[in-house]
Amino acid sequence: MTHDPVCQMPVDPRRAAAMVEHGGRTYYFCSAECRDKFLAQPERYSSKVAGMRLTVGVMGSADPAQLADVEERAYALGKAIAQQGLVLMTGACPGLPYACARGAHEAGGLSIGISPALSLDEHVHTYLSPSDAFDVIIYTGSGLMGREITSIRSSDMVVIVGGRSGTLGEFAIAYDEGKLIGVLQGTGGITDRLPDIVTAFGDKQTGARMYYATDPSALVTQLVQTYTHAHFRRPSSLLPRMRPAAS
Fold first, then answer.
1. Which domains are assigned to the chain?
2. Is the pLDDT of residue 170 over 80?
């Protein structure tokens, strides 16, 4: 449970009448009236509840040899995430996720890395991964495949940037678990194929929502708007469906 920042009433996030993102943090409301009061004077109410930060998981190619323009767009994506007050989460790997982490870090954002390693030493020397663009590195010790699940389940929304088979696996997990997914178009790899892949799924319904954009800032804005207006009610297919309220 959380509390409505206006009236202090306890609120179940999934049953909230409304949700607002302000400064990258989430606030839930018992009614549209309380939401409107908050929006009119957010500075008055935002300090009354510890709104949780929204997290964006960025998945993409870890190949350090990237085209300069694609790397620049990944960097811009990290900046856009930071500038909206959101938390960036990546696999703490080289390549496009690292470019994104640098963008977030240099824009003053919070960057979290989910490492496949047991320790910093293994992270740097065995997995040959960077450590200089992260505020926090979580050492899962679960290897490259295992850490993917942690990354995705810890993200409120997922963005796909470039990528090959490993990124496709991450996308498949996110899609099957009903995540809100953005695709940064024009970054190559599987991003060019995802519309056809999703079409091939047929009528499979997981609750996942897909958005495509070439502009990093526009993509982040669209994802946040969708999450706060609708997706927060069932952000994962792993959650049980809501039962109608008793009459």
1. 2-52 (no CATH), 54-232 (3.40.50.450)
2. yes
